[in-house]
Specification:
By secondary structure, this protein is of the alpha+beta class. The chain has a 3-stranded antiparallel beta sheet, with no helix packed on it. α2 (53-60) packs antiparallel against α4 (74-88) and α4 packs antiparallel against α5. It is built from 6 helices and 3 strands, in the order ββαβααααα. Residues 128-133 have low confidence and may be disordered.
Amino acid sequence: MPIYEYICLDCRRQVSLFFRTISEAQEATPTCPHCGSTRLVRRISRVAMLRSEESRLESLMDTNFLSGLEEEDPRALAQFMRRMSNELGEDLGDEFGEVVDRLEAGESPEEIEKHMPELANDSGGGLMDTGEE
């Protein structure tokens, strides 16, 4: 069931219109639900591509994407964390967002842990804990 997006030339709003079939959408005269105008211009909508969890996780391991991590670059780490969050499709909370913002600003994981001690886990590790002694 197609949903088409338009911009109303009279009230300048973006509107989404639902049609039961593609032929109905092609034959209908779209009308703005806000102002009643028929002066609508169709927008190209975003496309969503369904991918398996395995496919999403594989894309995270792309070697081009991992570059910079071995150099302990906070900005590269932030980019990786943000992409990982997007691929997983989960909101990881305000603390996660704050950590990523601080990394993007160039702050080191150690500096962030000093200002956010609640990030350290029970084993005493933190942002960069690898489990190695």
